[in-house]
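Hi R.,

Here's the chain you asked about this morning:
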Amino acid sequence: MSARTVIKEKANVVYATHNDLPKEVRSSVIELVDARLADSVDLQTQMKQAHWNVKGPDFISLHKLFDEVTEDVEEYVDLLAERVVQLGGVAHGTARQAAAHSTLAEYPPARDGHQHVEAVSLALASYGKSVRAAIDQTDRFGDKDTADIFTEISRGVDKWLWFVEAHLNAER
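And the predicted structure, written out as tokens:
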């Protein structure tokens, strides 16, 4: 099997655990959390792309801001991957797995600070929307703990979106 082999299907394995959530609930939550894990890994790499490549008069402030966002997103990746495993699943968090399953749009070519701010804002907004939907879904599944994790992530993403969009608002 070559390194370029396309990942076809992720196995939805659910290992035995003494966690009292029913196996069907755990299976549904694992699938949902693993999907948001793919988005999170993708978001993390997009934030690094902006951090590495930003240019312009606001370079230092944006360079630092994008790095701070990346650090928090890395925590979201860890929270979600660990939750998958806690529920008896297998976390799929490699770059190839994330690329194959992320729902985020591709990071666009960007040259200057304004273009990176716009791209980062759109990525954060899209990610935030999917995380908010996951809050409701896990709540309907009866998994308040996972809904709480998504709520924590949502609050953080909204904060970062506010910080990043402040750069757009200042330019209007």
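Residues 138 and 147 are 5 Å apart (CA to CA).

Let me know if you need anything else.
M.
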